[in-house]
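Hi V.,

Quick status before I head out on leave. The structure for the redesign project is tokenized and pasted below; the design run finished overnight.
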């Protein structure tokens, strides 16, 4: 029996990867949100190829599973690290907010719901200081994996008054969301800008390192990932995830060299 066309083989690869993700979910190796992101990415990839084929574009050869698995692994590692990076990698100043529209009344945003913050932001679009609240709300959405809700608030926050660290965080997280949506070029520009604003912002180095590794630049990835291990109080789970990524980058660098 002869080998099927490239799209058929690609579909088989994608379906195998989706089955693998579901197995990892069932066995507790992946959380539900990460599994959903991986499955959606695989399906978008296949839909894009099939749409191009229907339009008369040449059928591409299916990618090697090792490369697909690396991309999925990086997405998983990134998702795991993002959960904890707020407390351990990112330097996050205490955030104030304005629950009545008065810039004189800062509050502890941990006591304010997302809906309350949305209402205050909508009522005060031209107050420069509202940027801190927009950033805090965007962070909540980002850390919950709700990227479509996070993005407009990060973009809005960048138009207001933010200190260097907060501005770098907004740019870095826009970059990571853009990378996860499949546009590495635009993602790279945001991450580069984040580091131009604050070269010491660890989260931006993390995201850029993961992007570069996924794009095949293992040496460039190591330049951003290896210094992260010097961070103080890095939790063992996060340290192990970064160490695994660094080990893979070193392996690929040796193979490429």
């Amino acid at each position: 029996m002869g080998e099927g066309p490239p799209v058929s083989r690609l579909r088989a690869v994608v379906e195998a990867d989706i089955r693998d993700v579901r197995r990892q979910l069932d066995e507790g190796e992946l959380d539900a949100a990460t599994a959903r992101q991986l499955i959606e990415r695989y399906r978008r990839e296949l839909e894009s190829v099939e749409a191009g084929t229907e339009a008369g574009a040449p059928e591409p050869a299916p990618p090697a599973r090792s490369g697909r698995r690396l991309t999925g692994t990086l997405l998983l590692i990134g998702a795991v690290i993002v959960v904890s990076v707020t407390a351990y990698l990112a330097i996050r100043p205490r955030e104030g907010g304005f629950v009545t529209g008065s810039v004189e009344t800062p509050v502890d945003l941990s006591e304010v719901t997302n809906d309350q913050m949305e209402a205050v932001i909508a009522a005060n679009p031209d107050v420069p200081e509202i940027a801190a609240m927009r950033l805090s709300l965007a962070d909540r959405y980002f850390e919950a994996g709700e990227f479509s809700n996070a993005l407009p608030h990060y973009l809005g926050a960048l138009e207001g008054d933010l200190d260097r660290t907060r501005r770098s965080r907004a740019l870095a997280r826009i970059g990571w969301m853009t990378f996860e949506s499949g546009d590495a070029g635009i993602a790279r520009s945001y991450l580069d800008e984040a580091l131009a604003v604050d070269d010491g912002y660890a989260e931006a180095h993390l995201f850029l390192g993961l992007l570069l590794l996924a794009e095949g630049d293992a040496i460039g990835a190591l330049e951003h990932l290896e210094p992260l291990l010097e961070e103080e109080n890095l939790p063992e789970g996060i340290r192990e995830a970064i160490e695994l990524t660094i080990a893979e980058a070193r392996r690929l660098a040796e193979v490429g060299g």
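Above is the designed sequence. The longest helix spans residues 65-88.

G. will cover questions while I'm gone.

Best,
W.
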